[in-house]
Inverse folding.
């Protein structure tokens, strides 16, 4: 199997409802998202022309549209948070969510948003979302055995 990873950056603010720590307040992160996709290949031969699994430009287009454009320079808050702080409705860059906008929930959303946009021969393998340079959450596809060229 060959894997490709592309890295994306976006700036997003959020607050976590029901949390009794600093993250209950609106604050922002410079997120760094690593998207890894893969495909099963014949490892005993070079790839046929054009010689790559997926053009990095095409992966960028998918993730930019489904993720970065949605979250970059936006304020993401849960419906619960908004109900308790209706003044935030005045924000023109507000994204209202069913869930708390934690790194874990962002990763699940990102997975759902891009997995079906990939070419059929490509599989979303891993997502890694950094909130800071030292703190990140990871989602990985759980596949134990690859048989032939079927996932």
């Amino acid at each position: 199997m060959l894997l490709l990873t592309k890295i994306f950056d976006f700036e997003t603010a959020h607050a976590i409802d029901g949390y009794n720590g600093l993250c209950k307040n609106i604050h922002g992160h410079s997120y760094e998202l690593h998207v890894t996709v893969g495909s099963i290949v014949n490892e005993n031969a070079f790839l046929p022309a054009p010689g790559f699994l997926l053009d990095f430009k095409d992966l960028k287009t998918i993730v930019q549209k489904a993720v970065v454009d949605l979250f970059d320079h936006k304020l993401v808050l849960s419906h619960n948070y908004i109900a308790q702080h209706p003044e935030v409705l005045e924000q023109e860059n507000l994204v209202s969510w069913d869930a708390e906008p934690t790194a874990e929930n962002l990763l699940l959303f990102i997975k759902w948003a891009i997995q079906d946009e990939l070419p059929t021969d490509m599989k979303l393998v891993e997502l890694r979302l950094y909130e800071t340079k030292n703190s990140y959450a990871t989602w990985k596809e759980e596949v134990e055995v690859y048989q032939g060229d079927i996932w």
